[in-house]
Amino acid sequence: MSAEKLMKWAKSRKGQRCFVILTFMAVPLTLLMLFTYIPFLEMFKFSFYNMKYTGTRTFVGQKNYMEVFSREDCFRSLLLAFYYIAASFVQLGLALYFASIFCFKLRGKEVFKGLLFFPYLVCGIAIGFVFKFFFTRGFVLDTVLGWIGIPLESLPYWLKDTRINNISLVFTSIWRYLGQNMVLFLGAMMSVDQTLYEAAAIDGANAWNKFRYIMLPSINSVIVLNMIMCISGSLSAFEPPYVITNGSFGTGTYFVIMNRIAHENQRVGLASAMAIVLMVLIFIVTIFQKVVMAKLFPSDESEESIRRRRLKREKQLRKGGTFA
After folding, report:
1. Residue-level pLDDT at 282
2. Whether 228 contacts 289, CB under 8 Å
3. Is residue 319 included in any domain, yes or no?
4. Inter-axis angle of helices 63-70 and 72-102, nearest 10
C-alpha cells in the first residue's frame, strides 16, 4: 500500500475507527503484557532451573516437573484438593437451593441474602483468624457444644486431629463463598422469561418440572461458570490452611506447600514448576467441566420446545380450540 493510499485510508471513517480502537486498547494491553504475560513467560523459564531468588542458576530441564510428582508433600497436597472439590459441590448445591428460595416473594429475604453474601466481602486473612479461634480447643465451637451437653473430653481436636481437621477447614471455605455463588445463581434465575413458567403450568408441570426443564437449562452457563470458579479455587486454596494451621497436621494445600518451597526453602525453580502444573490441571478440569455440562445440557431444546408449545396453546385459545 502506497503512502498516499495509507493516508487516504487513515482519514476515512474506517481508518479513524481503527485508530480510536487501537488507542484505547494500547494502555490495557501494555499493562496486560507487563504484569501478566511477560511474568508468566519468566516463570515458565524459571521452572527449568535450580535457582534461588538471588545467586547462580543451574539448568536442570524437566527435573523440577518430575520432582513435583515424586515429592511426598507435593503429591499429598494434590490429593488434599479432593476435600475442597467435594466441598465445592456441597457449596454449589446450597447456593442453588437458597437462590431458588429467594426467587419467590418471602418476607425479610433481603436481610437473609445480605447475611449470606456478607462473608464474601470479608478479607480472607480476617476470616482465617476468626475460624482459628472458632476451632481452637476450648474456644467458641467447644463452648457452644458444651452448652448442649457434650463434654469437652469427648470432642476431637478440630485442627489437630487428621481425621477431621481438613473437613473443618473446608467448612470455612463453604461459609465464605456460598453467598457469591448464590448471588450469581439468583441473578441468572431472575432473568429467565416468566412466560416459560406460565406455559409449563398450562401443560401441567409441577414445581420440580419447572426447575428441572426450565430453570436449570436456562442458567447452565452460570452453573458452568460457578463450577469452574469453585473447582479452580479448590485446587488453589490458600488462606484458610495458611492462616489457621500454617499447613501443619496434614492440612498443607498445594498453594501452602508451594509458598513454603518458594519462600522458606528458596527453591524458586521447583515452585515455578508447581505453578505451571497447577495451571495445566485447572485447564484440564475446565475443559472436562465444559464437556460434561454440554452432555447434560446439549442445547436450549427444552426452552424452545416449551416456547413453541406456548405459542401453539395461545393460537388454539384464539381459535376457541381445546388442548390436546
Report:
1. 86
2. yes
3. no
4. 70
Cell numbers at 88, concatenated:
465445592
Task: Determine, yes or no, domain membership for 33.
Answer: no
Say how many domains are in the chain: 1
DSSP string of 157-196, one letter each residue = -TTT-TTTHHHHHHHHHHHHHHHHHHHHHHHHHHTS-HHH
Rounded Cα–Cα distance for residues 77 and 71 (Å): 10
Instruction: Name the residue with cell 481436636.
Output: 157
DSSP state of 251: T
H or E element that contains 50: strand 49-50
Question: Residue 322 above 70 pLDDT?
Answer: no
Domain CATH code at residue 216: 1.10.3720.10
Reduced to 3 states (helix: H, G, I; strand: E, B; else coil), residue 217 is helix
Contact 132, 239 (CB under 8 A): no
Which three cell numbers, joined as nine digits, stand for 20? Answer: 480510536
pLDDT(216) > 60 = yes
Residue 108, number of CB atoms within 10 A of its CB: 7
Question: Does the predicted TM-score (pTM) go above 0.85?
Answer: no
Alpha carbon dihedral 300, 301, 307, 312, in 10-degree steps, equals 170
Reading the block at residue 307, the C-alpha cell is 416456547
**Residue labelled with grid coordinates 501478566:** 36
Query: In the predicted model, what is the mean pLDDT of the chain?
Result: 85
The cell numbers describing 41, all together, are: 513467560
